[in-house]
Amino acid sequence: MTAPDVPIGHADGLSPVRVALLGCGVVGTEVVRLLTTQAEDLAARSGAPLEIVGIAVRDVDAPRDPIVGRHLLTDDAEALVDRADVVVEVMGGVEPARTLLLRALERGAAVVTANKALLGADGPTLYGAADAAGADLYFEAAVAGAIPLVRPVRESLAGDRITRVLGIVNGTTNYVLDQMTTTGLSLDDALARAQELGYAEADPTADVEGHDAAAKAAILASLAFHTRVSVDDVHCEGIMSVTADDVAWARESGHVVKLLAIAERSNGGVVVRVHPALVPEDHPLASVRGAFNAVFVEAEAAGELMFYGRGAGGLPTASAVLGDLVTVARHRVRGGKGPVESRYAELPVRSIGAATTRYQVRLRVVDRPGVLAQVSTVFAEHRVSIETVRQAASNPDPTHADLLVVTHAATDDSLRATVAAVGELPVVEQVLSVLRVEGV
Amino acid sequence: MTAPDVPIGHADGLSPVRVALLGCGVVGTEVVRLLTTQAEDLAARSGAPLEIVGIAVRDVDAPRDPIVGRHLLTDDAEALVDRADVVVEVMGGVEPARTLLLRALERGAAVVTANKALLGADGPTLYGAADAAGADLYFEAAVAGAIPLVRPVRESLAGDRITRVLGIVNGTTNYVLDQMTTTGLSLDDALARAQELGYAEADPTADVEGHDAAAKAAILASLAFHTRVSVDDVHCEGIMSVTADDVAWARESGHVVKLLAIAERSNGGVVVRVHPALVPEDHPLASVRGAFNAVFVEAEAAGELMFYGRGAGGLPTASAVLGDLVTVARHRVRGGKGPVESRYAELPVRSIGAATTRYQVRLRVVDRPGVLAQVSTVFAEHRVSIETVRQAASNPDPTHADLLVVTHAATDDSLRATVAAVGELPVVEQVLSVLRVEGV
Prior knowledge:
Two copies of one chain form a homodimer.
Chain A: E1 17-22, H1 26-37, H2 39-46, E2 50-56, E3 73-74, H3 77-81, E4 86-89, H4 97-107, E5 110-113, H5 116-133, E6 137-138, H6 150-156, E7 162-168, H7 171-183, H8 187-196, H9 205-208, H10 211-225, E8 235-236, H11 244-252, E9 255-266, E10 269-280, E11 292-299, E12 303-310, H12 314-334, E13 349-350, E14 356-366, H13 371-381, E15 386-391, E16 400-407, E17 410-411, H14 412-424, E18 428-437
Parallel strand pairs in A: 1-2, 1-4, 2-3, 4-5, 5-6, 8-10, 10-13, 10-18
Antiparallel strand pairs in A: 7-9, 7-11, 9-10, 11-12, 14-16, 14-17, 14-18, 15-16
Helix pairs in contact in A: 1-12, 2-12, 4-5, 5-10, 7-8, 13-14
C-alpha cells in the first residue's frame, strides 16, 4: 500500500519540515539522537521545527537504541519517501538507495545522503535528477565524514580554479599503515589489530583494496573539476602489497607510506587515482594519524588549503548530515536552493599513464661493478631523470645488493616502461617494490 | 550628484549581475583580475555574467595595474552603491565602509566584505541590517584569508554544537614567533626581518598587539556561539612581551610559542581571548609555519576539525571574495539567500578570569632549601594543582635559581591570584614570565 502523495511546499516557519530517514544503523541512530536532543537549536537555525515522520528499516523488530521511537519505524520506504519534504539517506549501498532517492528528487523533495558508494558509482544520475527537479541534493557526509569539504569545494572555492586535490580519505587503511610505521608490524598483523579494535571490518576488502577511497576520489573530482567522474574512472591500487620492508625503507629516506586519493588537472584533462605513496615526513599529511582524514586542496588563487578531522564514525558523520539537513530545511522554509552540480567543464578523464609523478624503486641486483651504470642507462634511455640512488647499508648475502632509486617527475607511463625495462636487465634479479612519491 | 536608483531584481540568467567594487588596493586589484580572466567560469557557476559596474577609489588618478579599467573608476561611492546588485567591499577600516554597506543592505543589495576591522567592531549592526532587509551578507575573506572557515562554521556545523575555536589567525605574528623559534632571534630582530621581507607593515601595531587577531576572534565567536561578540569583549594580549628566553624555555619543555585566538564555552557563557600561549610540539597547530593560518574547531558531534591555509595576501583573499560573490550572485539569479546570523543564543560574554587554562610560570628564587615548599604551599592554598616543577640546569649566579612551574587546569582568575601571591614571597626575587599552555 502506498501512502497518499503529500504535496511539497514551503513551510511557514511554524509547520514542521517533514524528515524521512532511510536506514537506522550507527549513523542513523546518531542522526535521530541529534534531532531529538538538539531540537530547539536546530529549529532556530532552520527556521522551523524538524520532524521525523518515519524511519525506513529492513527489520522493524530488530533491537535498537531506545532513542529510536518504535512507532516511527516502517519497512515501506517508498510510502515514507512520498510523505517527506526532506529525505535523509544513511542506508548505504547502491540499491535500493538510488531508486528511493530518485523517487524523492522527482517529487521535488530535498535529499541529504551519506552514501559514497552510490555517489561514486552513479553520482551524475542523481545530480542530474536534482537539477531537473530543482531540488536540493547535499552529501557532505559522503566524503571524509565530519570534515566540511564538499561545501568548501563547491561553494567557497567557486571563484577559484582548483588544480589538485590530494588526501587521506580512508581511516581504516590510515590506521593500518600508521601501525606498520610506528610498530614495524606486517600488514597482516596490523590489519588483524585494526579488526580487533573495531577500526577495520571483518571483511575489510572495500577499505584495503582502495574501493572506498576511490568512490570518495570520484565524488571530489566531480566537484573540483566540474566534470563527470565515476568510480570506474579512478585508477585504484590498495595497500595489500605494502610490506614492512617498504615502510622501513620509506622511514630511512624521510618518508611515510600513506594511501592517497589524488585528483588533478593534467594536459587539459583530469586524472584520478588512489594508491599507496611515499609522503615526506614534514608534509602536513604525514602527521595525520590513526582514523583521522585530511585533504589538501590546491587552487590557483587560494594556494594550499588543508581540511582535517574525523573521517568516519556515527557521531561525526551524523554532524555532517545534520549540517546539510539544516541548510535544505532553511531553503524549504525561506526559499532558495543550493548550488547546481554544474558539469559545464566536462574535461576528458585520462588514465593514470598521463599523471606526472615520481617513483621510488627498490631493486635487488647482482653485486658487481658496472651494475649502476647499466641501470642508469635504462632510465636515461626512457628520459627519466634520477634524483638519488642509494645502496642498502647491510646485506646478508654478499653476492647481491639492494638499490633504492628515486626519480624526478615524469609521466606514469614512462616511469612504468622504465621499470619494466630495468626488470629485464640480466643484472637485476628482482624489482622489490615500486612506490610513487607525492607531496613534494 | 547621485545616480538614479536602479531597482534590484532577480537577474534572468542573461542580464549580468551588477557588481560594485569598493576599494582597489592589493585585494581589489586581484578581484578585478579574477573577474576578468575567469569570467566564463564565473558566469557558468553563478548562472549569469558578473559585470563590474564601477570601482570606488579615493584617488581616480593614482597609478594602477592595467587590468583595472580606468573608465570604471569613480570617487562617488554612494552613487556606485546605488546602481549595484552586489557590493564587494575591500577598502578596509570602519568608516566610510560601514555607512556604504548599510546603504547597500537597506536597498536590498547583497554585500560581500573582507573587512575584519568593521565586522569585529560592529558586526551585529551589519548582520541586523542584512536580516531586516532580507539581503545576503557574506564575509569569508574577513577571517583567515583564503581558508574556508566562515562557511563551514555557519553552515556545515549548523547541526552540531561548537564548544571551542582555537587558532592561529595572524600571519605576521606567526612569522615573527616562528623566526624566534627557529633562529633564536629576539622579538625586535625577528620583527625587523619580517618588515624587511614585507611580512609585517611599517607600523605593525595592529598585528603585534593582537588587535587584528581579536577582530577575527570576535567574528568567529559570534558565528560559533550565535552570540553578539565585539572586539571590545575580547581579552587581548599581543606578542611584545615574548622574549627569546620564553621561546627557549618553551622548546626545552616540548612546546612552541604561538599567538592564539580562542573562543570557548565556559559556565554557560562565552570567553574570547587572544594571547601568546605554549602549544605542545606534537599538536597540529605547532607545525603551522610562517604566514600560514590554521583554526581548530571542536564540536560535540564532529569532534576536532582543523582548517589550514594562507591567511592573507591579495590573491588568496580575492579567492575567498570570489567564492562569496558567486554564491550571492547565484541567489540573485536563482532565488534564495544565505543563512541569517541568528543570535538566538545570546550567551553572556564573560571575562578571561572565567576561562579554564594552565599556566607555565618562570620564577627567579633564592637558592636555599625550603623554597620549593614555600612556593608549592602558595599554589596549594589557591587550590591550583602543580603538574611539574623544574629547575634550570645551568645558572651563572649560584645564589639564585630559576624555577619552571607548570600547573594543571584552573580558572584564569585563580591562576592570576596564585602568581601574584607567589610574587609576594620574600624568597621569590622575580616572576620572570607567565604563559598560558593550550592545546592539551
